[in-house]
C-alpha cells in the first residue's frame, strides 16, 4: 500500500487535528478482534499526542468508525477505559473502511 496523501496532525489555533488512526501493531500488522484493534488505535493516538506535548485528557472531540455495529459494546468498553472524564464529544458511525480494519478513530485536541 502506498503512502496516502495526508498529514498525521495539523495545528490550527489552539486545536490539534489528527488524521484517522488505525490499529496497526508495532509489527505493522492489524491484530484480530475489535478489542486489540481499539487498544492499538488509541495507543497510536496517544503517541501522536505525546509527540505534540499533549495526552488523551486534551482530546475534546472524536469521530469513530466501526465496520460492524455488533462490535460497539467491546469498542465502547475500551474507549471508556482509556479516555479520561470528562469524555470527548463523540460520533460513532458504522461504515466500511478502506483496509481490513474494524475501527478507525480521528480526534481533535486542545493545545495547552
TrEMBL record:
GO terms for cellular component: cytosol. InterPro entries: RutC-like_sf, YjgF/YER057c/UK114. Pfam families: Ribonuc_L-PSP (PF01042). One of its GO terms (molecular function) is deaminase activity. PANTHER family: 2-IMINOBUTANOATE/2-IMINOPROPANOATE DEAMINASE RIDA, 2-IMINOBUTANOATE_2-IMINOPROPANOATE DEAMINASE. This is Enamine deaminase RidA, house cleaning of reactive enamine intermediates, YjgF/YER057c/UK114 family. It comes from Albimonas donghaensis.
Amino acid at each position: 500500500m502506498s503512502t496516502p496523501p495526508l498529514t498525521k496532525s495539523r495545528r490550527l489555533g489552539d486545536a490539534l487535528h489528527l488524521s484517522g488512526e488505525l490499529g496497526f501493531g508495532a509489527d505493522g500488522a492489524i491484530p484480530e478482534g475489535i478489542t486489540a484493534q481499539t487498544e492499538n488505535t488509541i495507543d497510536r493516538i496517544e503517541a501522536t499526542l505525546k509527540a505534540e506535548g499533549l495526552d488523551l485528557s486534551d482530546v475534546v472531540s472524536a469521530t469513530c468508525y466501526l465496520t460492524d455495529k455488533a462490535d460497539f459494546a467491546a469498542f465502547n468498553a475500551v474507549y471508556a477505559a482509556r479516555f479520561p472524564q470528562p469524555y470527548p464529544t463523540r460520533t460513532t458511525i458504522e461504515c466500511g473502511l478502506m483496509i481490513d480494519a474494524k475501527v478507525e478513530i480521528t480526534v481533535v485536541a486542545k493545545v495547552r
